[in-house]
Amino acid sequence: MSGSGKQIYCFADVEIDPLRGCLTRNGEEIYLRPRTLQVLIYLIEQRERLVTKEELMESIWKNTAVTDDALVQCVGDIRRALKDDPHRPQFVKTFPKLGYHFISPEVEVRSELHASAATFIARSPPACGPSRRSRGRRSPTAARCGWGRGRRRAGAPAASSRRACRCR
């Protein structure tokens, strides 16, 4: 991926911030697995053309042995997050046996963050994890999702309680 670290992609009611690793739709953050987010960003960056399955596999998974099913799963997750119908696509069009094409008519690319701000965001504590001020107490957001207690919200991705929660 070219300079995706400092760029924010906006289209329709979606905003993708690769630096934070988050997709926001209508102001609501939607969790995507890291590889799925990489696939989406790659398709957006190559939106002028059809991207073959082989190219996606090589650029995203590099020297890892995976089947086409991993890519199909990623595209399915992208479609669910974007609420895109595969029969009448607005964002990702499938070309059977060939690959995928990102077809959104308008994609705005913004470069908002400077290197110092990016460093601050990268080092800031998770949104619902404990902070220095909390002295072991959980934030209201953390209390809702069960962060730090080994519990998770219904429908939230399974993650260890030591990792930061991605809900907001």
- Please give the number of β-strands: 8
At the fourth level of CATH, the homologous superfamily of the largest domain is Winged helix-like DNA-binding domain superfamily/Winged helix DNA-binding domain
Unreliable stretches: 114-132
The share of residues in extended strands comes to 15-25%
Order of helices and strands: EEEEHEHHEEEHH
The main β sheet shows up as: 5 strands, antiparallel
CATH topology of the largest domain: Arc Repressor Mutant, subunit A
Provide the number of structural domains: 2
Radius of gyration: 17 Å
At CATH level 2, the architecture of the largest domain is: Orthogonal Bundle
General shape: globular
Mean pLDDT score, rounded? Answer: 76
The first-to-last residue Cα distance is: 27 Å
Q: How many helical stretches? A: 5
Task: Break the fold down into its secondary structure elements and pairings.
Layout: E1 8-11, E2 14-17, E3 22-25, E4 28-30, H1 34-45, E5 51-52, H2 53-61, H3 68-82, E6 92-95, E7 99-102, E8 108-110, H4 115-123, H5 140-145
Antiparallel strand pairs: 1-2, 1-8, 2-3, 3-4, 5-7, 6-7
